[in-house]
Amino acid sequence: MSEGHDGIAADFRGRLARVRTAMAERGLDGLLIYASGQHSMLRMDQVHYLSDVRVIGPHAVLLVPLDDEPRLLLTPRWDLARAREATWLKEVETADPEALAERVAQAARGLSEPLGLCGREAMPVGFARALFAALGRTPVDAADLIPSLAVSRTPVELERIRRAAAMADEGFRTLCEVARVGMREYELAAEVDAAMHALGAEDNFGMIAAGAHNVAVRPPTDRRLDPGDVIISEITPCYRGYLAQLCRTLILGKATTLQREKHDLLLEAYGQGMAAARPGRPSAEIARAINGVIGRAGYAEYCRQPYMRTRGHGLGFGAVVPYDLTEDASPVLQKGMTFIIHPNQYIPETGYLMLGDTVVVGPDGPEPLTRTPQRLFSKE
User: Fold this and answer.
1) Which of 66, 174, 176, 351, by CA, is between 20 and 30 Å from 236?
2) Residue 299 and residue 168 share a domain
3) Domain enclosing residue 60, as ranges
4) How far apart are CA 247 and CA 255, in angstroms?
5) CA 291 to CA 263: how far, in whole Å?
6) Using one digit for the tens of pLDDT, what is the confidence trace for 8-23?
7) Nearest-CA neighbor of 341 among 314, 318, 376?
8) pLDDT tens per residue across span 287-299
């Protein structure tokens, strides 16, 4: 491990201690945590949260006994050296995919009932059947145990998110610098990806679309950029398993008065959404504040599906609380939460416009972690 091995290990031991306290409160003698290489921006990777290993194979199980060392078992066999280098855990072993269920069962022998299970929703049916048969029992569902403890970011998590946020800023700076008429969308996206990977990004959930009137953000295509295009970007780099997202709009040419007027509406909504993001307040108030501004401007019907889904969301892999920022959302905001606030909006006169930042909730309100100015960009 790098980034200061001792500090990171202490951070992870703190997470493990909180998990074990919750296990004891539920009467669990052990916990099985499942993950695979199929990562999702909107799903927490609980194995990564406790081990610092991003799984790349088809299956991995982290066994956490109540009173013994955790053991990480994963596939494929050749991934052992990478996993051991990445983790603070002492017990790491690999197995062939078809043998992993039996190896997990052997490791779990001696643990009494009940045994908890996290990550069942991501587990393939075939592996679940093999695991439960090898165990000779079906573990208790403990899907909420770790997410409930990961609502607020630890110092190590927050530092990684800040690093990812800086990468997102560089990605958008590159987009503005290299975008030109005649360039294909996927070429522009490749330049953005390359700039962030040069800074250490592991991945990027990138959505870059362009046109005179965008209906929604989408993956880049082979379309060539035209003069006057509205380029909307959702840039989401990953650094050491943690994501930050930046949403911005660039006009390839001089922005019109109408475009600036409608983007100013997003700026006002953004400000009201940020003002609502205070500890102790329901996350739904962020969506209500944003929708209130846009609705009063005459676009209430466009604040709902199919035009808009959410006004922000948590970002995995470390946690996804709050999930979607909607008027029906229920989580109460807490100090140390991180998520994106984005009043992205389809407007009939201009098409889809984007604006949003990853924030961390502080004692007095949200702090943007992305530093790109909140404005409409243009490149004449």
Assistant:
1) 351
2) yes
3) 5-149
4) 18
5) 15
6) 999 999 999 999 999 9
7) 314
8) 999 999 999 999 9
